[in-house]
Amino acid sequence: MSEAITEYRNENTKDIDLLSTIDMVRKMNEEDQIVAKVVGDEAPNIATAIDMIAKAFLKGGRLFYFGAGTSGRLGILDASECPPTFSVDPSMVQGIIAGGPKSFINAVEGAEDNFGNGKEDAKVLTDKDICVVISASGNPKYLLGVLEQADEAGAATIAVTCNSRGMIAQEAGHVICAEVGPEVIAGSSRLKAGTAQKMILNMLTTGAMIKIGKTYENFMIDLKAVNEKLKDRAIRIVSQIADVTNSEALAALLKCNWEIKTAIVMIMMKTDVDNARLELKRHGGVLRRIIKAEETAV
Asked: pTM of this prediction?
């Protein structure tokens, strides 16, 4: 196996240990600026992946992230943010890390090299699901085990990597490859590679949730208002979309257990909680369809 791009030495940072702190920061920032462009270059492949994931969601499928080390942690982080942001069941987007949950905090040596554990962990997959394997180098045997099991289960596979020559790029059905180049510190792929992966995962879940109607315009209309900050945000969202005062928005939210979309439909259609929920169900939970129908009726 040839040396991964992520292991190359960065010619621009060979003297980083001799720099002043401010110059060190500037040098790191210069390298980070490469990331956004490289991720942008992968926009078509990211868009294809979003459409794959959204299609799976609409058919009752789930999204699984698999990774080792930093990549695994990023997958778990992105998955954990979906329930509070979009009010989806925690099972809809899941992150699995090589070595099990304890690896999230403490590195488990050799976990990424275990092909068998990858196959075993991937037995949660069905033919309705999307399997996303994440790796900067693209070579962990754990992920090759995941991909083999995913193929056996009939799950669609997507690789998110920073190395086009990595094994997962050869084995996955669809590839997103953000080649950010050598790291500031050779081999430390939690840096540019990790930033690129985080940006891509943000796009995958956010894009797919938008596609299935979890937002209206750029409002977070399915958030769970579980604390004061989020309740305040819910009031502002209802107020702005339904064009009512904050007091009217609060009154509607209190009647429907802080369900933002229900409150908006109640106000706009001048109806009660039960009828608002039925209307949302009839339109697949997509608020824009209801608003469009109301505007057409007028």
From this structure: 0.90
